[in-house]
Write a structure and sequence with these properties.
Elements (H helix, E strand, L loop, with lengths): L1 E8 L2 H12 L5 E3 L2 E6 L4 E7 L7 E7 L3 H13 L8 E5 L2 E9 L5 E10 L6 E2 L17
Parallel strand pairs: 1-4, 5-8
Antiparallel strand pairs: 1-5, 2-3, 3-4, 6-7, 6-9, 7-8
């Protein structure tokens, strides 16, 4: 697992240049208005969204797991402890397919537990449902 930090940025080119120098690695994926870094040391998934919110603010936080079973286990632990989640869903978002669940922290910070299952050419969230059904409200849980 590794922590995910998703930031809203004003100028993606400037931000990519800065974080490339800061962490000594190029983005793992770059699309219009979007970039993500798979930083090895410290273990971090850094995601940048251009124009998605106030520059310099946190878009959301997350925990990237290695398997869908880890997402399901986190979901079970979170709900058993009384925290409200969105439930586990299979989605396309942020140029990836994922199995994920979302929850809000006490001060409104959005947290995502997820595993990337593949690549996608789509930024905006679409829920495929655990059984393949589409959820029209899924875009409200997306990162942008």
């Amino acid at each position: 697992m590794r922590l995910q930090l998703a930031l809203n940025v004003d100028d993606l080119d400037v931000a990519v240049d800065f974080y490339t120098k800061m962490f000594g690695t190029e983005p793992a994926k770059r699309k219009p208005g979007y970039a993500n870094f798979a930083v090895e040391n410290p273990p971090l998934k850094l995601v940048l969204f251009e124009g998605a919110g106030e520059p310099g603010s946190i878009n959301h936080l997350g925990v990237e797991t290695e398997t869908a079973e880890e997402v399901l286990a986190a979901e079970a632990r979170l709900t058993e402890s009384g925290l409200e989640t969105t439930g586990v869903d299979d989605t396309m978002c942020c140029y990836a397919t994922k199995t994920e669940t979302w929850l809000d922290g006490p001060d409104g910070a959005r947290w995502e537990w997820y595993v990337k299952t593949g690549d996608s050419e789509q930024l905006v969230n679409t829920s495929m449902g655990r059984e393949g059904a589409t959820d029209p409200d899924a875009g409200q849980r997306c990162c942008v």
